[in-house]
């Protein structure tokens, strides 16, 4: 299994960073680096599904492993969604000429606050695939946008 981490320090309390990460309006903003129409559909319950989709219902789906508000969110990617339907687990999607295999990739968000500064760490763990190269391009941009949004008054 491969592990990749991305980290940023944000001049805001964890509650503010958490809301930027997961509230619909701000999630759509910072996750626009993945896809301009990207949004989440979920009940946020541990064990439940979370869909990362565009307005036509195309994207990825995962299962929430842990959800501790203002501290930790983790989900395991299970596959792709097409037209609001889960696709077979071995289905592959090509993005920018690279085959993306997200099945079995665990994505986690850890927040830790000290003296009003929140450290946000995003960790991806999974089988070797092109998702690592893709992540190294998009996650730094996404985290910068989270930081910008959280530090706004």
TrEMBL record:
Family, per entry: Belongs to the AHA1 family.
Protein source organism: Solitalea longa
Domain of life of the source: Bacteria
Gene3D superfamilies: 3.30.530.20
Residue ranges annotated for the Activator of Hsp90 ATPase homologue 1/2-like C-terminal domain, each copy included: 11-129
UniProt protein name: ATPase
């Amino acid at each position: 299994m491969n592990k990749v981490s991305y980290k940023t320090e944000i001049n805001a309390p964890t509650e503010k960073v958490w809301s930027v990460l997961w509230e619909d309006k701000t999630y759509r903003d910072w996750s626009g680096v993945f896809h301009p129409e990207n949004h989440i559909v979920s009940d946020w319950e541990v064990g439940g599904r979370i869909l990362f989709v565009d307005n036509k219902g195309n994207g990825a789906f995962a299962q929430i492993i842990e959800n501790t508000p203002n501290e930790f969110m983790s989900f395991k990617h299970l596959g792709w969604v097409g037209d609001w339907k889960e696709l077979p687990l071995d289905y592959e999607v090509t993005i920018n000429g690279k085959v993306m295999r997200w099945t079995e990739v665990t994505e986690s968000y850890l927040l830790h606050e000290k003296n009003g500064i929140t450290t946000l760490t995003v960790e991806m763990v999974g089988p070797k695939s092109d998702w690592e190269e893709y992540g190294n391009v998009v996650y730094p941009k996404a985290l910068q946008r989270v930081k910008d949004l959280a530090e706004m008054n």
